[in-house]
Amino acid sequence: MLSSRAILLGRLLQRAVSSRAPAIRSQIVRHGHDVSYRMNGPKPEMAARVGAQVAGGLMWWWVLWHLFHEYEHITGEFAYPDPAEWTNAELGIPADDDE
């Protein structure tokens, strides 16, 4: 019985001594990614920056090319009717002689 108490006391003392580690050790540190809190993140590589510029240029070329050559997607494929040719009946306007 005395030996079991001595083992428990030894474990308790070992925990007490190991818990006296500096406060920095008690902080959880994760090394999964760069930290950018209140500071700029790492600068991307030159290849990534050039690739982004090329991709953006190709996207704008594609958009502007199709706006110029296929403008019917915006304006519609069919001719817009002339409003001067619409009758009062089509517009829902009652005749002048009706009261």
Outline the structure in words.
The protein is mainly alpha-helical and 99 residues long. The chain has one domain. It has helices spanning 2-18, 46-69, 72-75, 88-91. The radius of gyration is 39 Å and the shape is elongated. The chain starts with a helix and ends in an 8-residue tail after the last helix.
The total of helices stands at 4
Give the C-alpha Rg.
39 Å
Measured between the Cα atoms of the first and last residue, the distance is 115 Å
Strand fraction: under 5%
Structural classification:
mainly alpha
Shape: elongated
Assign a percent range to the helix content: 40-55%
What is the typical, i.e. mean, pLDDT?
83
Q: In the residues, how many domains can be counted? A: 1
- Main beta sheet, described? none
Total number of β-strand segments? 0
Order of helices and strands: HHHH
Subunit structure: Complex I is composed of 45 different subunits.
GO cellular component, one term: mitochondrial inner membrane
Organism: Psorophora albipes
Subcellular location: Mitochondrion inner membrane
